[in-house]
Structure formats: structure tokens, C-alpha cells
Write a structure and sequence with these properties.
- The chain is an all-alpha fold.
- It has one domain (3-114): Winged helix-like DNA-binding domain superfamily/Winged helix DNA-binding domain (Arc Repressor Mutant, subunit A, Orthogonal Bundle).
- Helices cover 43% and strands 3% of the residues.
- The chain is built from 6 helices and 2 strands.
- It has helices spanning 3-14, 24-31, 35-45, 63-76, 89-92, 96-106; strands at residues 22-23, 54-55.
- The protein has a two-stranded parallel ribbon.
- It is globular.
- The termini are far apart.
Length: 138
């Protein structure tokens, strides 16, 4: 796995404040990758981080991780959902704009080429031309 990518993700994780969580997709949007890539980094390299602050979009974990996260959540005041299968992410989600600003400042020491590419918003990419096309014909 790309060491730079690991560093970018783990720096974002380290910035999630105590008592707050972010979903894999939230971090993916900040770093410029997909939620599964964030999950892959966390599964291989996340043990030394505050991994319990990174959840599924629903605020949950797999059952084994949930049991490991529970003491951390109790210590940080992260409330469990009534069914006990995760946190109430809508109440505990980190301020994502602030997190992104802090992350950008936190990765400023990396060379510009070391940053993961920012995804373009949907619909912002020009459509590819069809073979033989000379323009829009307007």
C-alpha cells in the first residue's frame, strides 16, 4: 500500500476530536479517496490511531470492533444507539469543514505531489468526444 496514502489517512484520523466520529466516506472525501480505501488503510495500519472514531456511515462497526470501541466511546461520551449496534453518528459527527481545514494544514509538510488527488464534483468533468465528432454542432 502507498505509504503516502497511509500517512494522509492517518493524519486525518488523528485530527478527529475526542467525543466525535467521522465515517469512512467522510474521511475519503477529505483525503480524496473512496471509503473502501480508507477502510483498507485502517484495517492494516489503524491500530496505533484513534480508530474508534472512524465508523461506517451508519455509525456502526462490525461486532468485534464494536466491543473494542465501546470502552473508548464511554470514556469520550459517545452515546450508543438504543439498539447498541453503533453510535448516534448524527449527534457525534465531527465538524467536517473544520476537520478538512485542519487536515490541509496538517499535510502541508508533504510535497504537493504527495497529496492524494481531490475528486472532481460529479458533472464537472468535460464529456469525452465521440470518435469522428467535430464539436457540438450548435
Amino acid at each position: 500500500m502507498d505509504e503516502r496514502l497511509v500517512e494522509l489517512v492517518l493524519r486525518a484520523v488523528d485530527l478527529i476530536p475526542p467525543g466525535r466520529v467521522a465515517a469512512y466516506g467522510d474521511l475519503g472525501r477529505i483525503v480524496g479517496i473512496g471509503p473502501r480505501q480508507v477502510g483498507a488503510v485502517m484495517s492494516r495500519y489503524g491500530d496505533g490511531s484513534t480508530w474508534w472514531r472512524v465508523t461506517r456511515a451508519s455509525g456502526g462497526f462490525s461486532p468485534d470492533l464494536l466491543e473494542r470501541a465501546r470502552p473508548h466511546w464511554l470514556e469520550e461520551g459517545i452515546a450508543l444507539r438504543s439498539n447498541g449496534r453503533g453510535c448516534r453518528i448524527e449527534e457525534h459527527r465531527a465538524d467536517l469543514e473544520q476537520l478538512e481545514r485542519q487536515w490541509r494544514a496538517g499535510v502541508a509538510d508533504l510535497a504537493p505531489g504527495d497529496r492524494a488527488p481531490r475528486p472532481e464534483p460529479r458533472g464537472s468533468r468535460p464529456r469525452p468526444r465521440r470518435a469522428g465528432s467535430r464539436g457540438s454542432g450548435r
